[in-house]
Amino acid sequence: MANPILNENFGTAGERVLESEPMTLSGTINKIAILFLLVIVGAYCAWNSFSLGYTDRVSILTTVGFIVSLLLGFIIPFVPTWAPVLSPVYALAEGLLLGGISAMFEKAYPGIVIQATIGTFAALGTMLALYKFKIIRCTERFKSTVFTAMMAVFLIYLIDIIASFFGRGIPLINGNGIIGIVFSLVVIAIASFCLIVDFSYIEEGSNKMLPKYYEWYGAYGLMVTLIWLYFEMLKLFAKLNSRNG
């Protein structure tokens, strides 16, 4: 599979609901909408502070958003029953992080946030259509391939982060040259395919009538992928805009 949040343990037979209200597709969509609104609220707080010139506050909000979302990103997958409480907090934290970083990108490249947002929703709509009309079937082989590709990307990013501590990094993938742009396009494609895997696990969970809290867990997993996709879109358009500058 692709998203480590929605993994093979999502939908195990032992967790099927017998008496309480089960997970439904419509319920999960509602939870996705709630988390999306919370992300917007958090992003607005950081963005507005940046617009008012409170750079110190933005730095604090962005740092808090990063730390909280990182911690919850490790906790929620191991304790899905806490998802109804922790997922909204995660969404707000990611919103703070997203808003702060987006404002900085917007200052450097005016209009880039709109470009990245349109690109993200275009990818979401395209993948949803491909999944709904079964143009791309989410087979076990597909899941395994996407997961392997995603792990390769994360490994490259990890090497880049470690190398940056020594003042090196990987300039080819971070630069605005052809290699850097192609790398961003590949990562965006992988993140987009992760959406299809997310759709599949959410649908499987509702068909298996998992406990109600899995609606929050499924929504959280999809939100993780969407935010990753948005950040990759920001990086791509930053590279493209810097070439035109």
What would your notes on this structure say?
- The chain has one domain.
- The chain is an all-alpha fold.
- It has helices at 25-51, 55-75, 83-108, 112-132, 140-164, 171-174, 178-207, 214-244.
Keywords summarizing the entry:
mainly alpha
What is the element string, with H for helices and E for strands? HHHHHHHH
How does the overall form come out from the CA principal axes? globular
Kindly state the number of beta strands: 0
Which ranges are low-confidence, i.e. pLDDT below 50, for 5 or more consecutive residues? none
Query: In this structure, how is the largest beta sheet organized?
Result: none
Count of helix runs: 8
Cα-atom radius of gyration: 18 Å
Provide the residue-averaged pLDDT. Answer: 91
- Percent of residues in helices comes to over 70%
Helices and strands in order:
Layout: H1 25-51, H2 55-75, H3 83-108, H4 112-132, H5 140-164, H6 171-174, H7 178-207, H8 214-244
Helix pairs in contact: 1-2, 1-3, 1-8, 2-3, 3-8, 4-7, 4-8, 5-7, 7-8
